[in-house]
Amino acid sequence: MDAEKSLSAEEVLAELFCRRPELDACRQAIEDAYELLLACFSHGSKLLVCGNGGSASDSEHIVGELMKSFRFRRPVDPAFSAAYLERNGEAAPGWLEGALPAISLVSQTSLSTAFANDETGVGAFAQQVLGYGRTGDVLMCISTSGDAANAVEAAKVARALGMRVVSLTGKDGSALSRISDACVQVPETETFKVQELHLPVYHALCAALEAALF
Predict the structure, then answer these.
(1) Are 46 and 199 in contact (CB under 8 A)?
(2) Local confidence pLDDT in tens for the 214 residues of the chain
(3) 122 Cβ partners below 8 Å, 6+ apart?
(4) How many other CB atoms are found less than 10 A from the CB of residue 121?
(5) Architecture of domain 9-213
(6) What are the residue ranges spanned by the domains of the chain?
(7) 4: buried, middle or exposed (CB in 10 Å: 19+, 13-18, 0-12)?
């Protein structure tokens, strides 16, 4: 929480393209992803996130930025504060912060390993989407190739549930690019370079959502 002044969501995204001009090629997809996520959270729905390897770490990172204050202090909902006082006879603790509900599917170690052992590792994320996902939720798949089989299967389940799918991939066409509602195909193909561009994209999305909703 070190920003000097409050920025609007539009200013956050504009700043991204100024800092990382190579991402201008993805401008429309990034803006589409933002709009899908904004609608999701505005209607009280949640985000599920998945990825493998370095993208698994990115999944955790995104959830960390959404579930607590990121660039600015987030107040809790006044209705929650009133309910807390009524039911507990004291004010809500000041350390509680506004949250955007997000779950990293890579964190569910016991479930995912049990499912991989009993059924198939390809379906571990898909099984979680089936259990957690509801119409109106968004699934974010992060895959540098765009072809990670477990992410693709998760996206198929999400579509069947009436969820929207946002993906972060590399620049080439992929299975995820063909089935996502918004696919940010950053202009790199080598794995670590794709990952280096995913980070500013999802940081900007998280910051823009925070600016819009808090």
Answers:
(1) no
(2) 655 567 899 999 999 999 999 999 999 999 999 999 999 999 999 999 999 999 999 999 999 999 999 999 999 999 999 999 999 999 999 999 999 999 999 999 999 999 999 999 999 999 999 999 999 999 999 999 999 999 999 999 999 999 999 999 999 899 999 999 999 999 999 999 999 999 999 999 999 999 999 9
(3) 149, 150, 153
(4) 13
(5) 3-Layer(aba) Sandwich (3.40)
(6) 9-213
(7) exposed
Tokens of 124: 């571990």
Coil, helix or strand for 1? coil
Q: How far apart are the C-alpha atoms of 117 and 112, rounded to whole Å? A: 9
Count how many Cα atoms sit within 13 Å of the Cα of residue 144 in the half-sphere of its side chain: 18
Q: For residue 45, what are the CA distances in angstroms to 10, 27, 100, 139, 158?
A: 22, 25, 9, 11, 14
Q: Any idea which residue has 């609608």 for tokens?
A: 39
Are 133 and 98 in contact, with CB atoms under 8 Å apart?
A: no
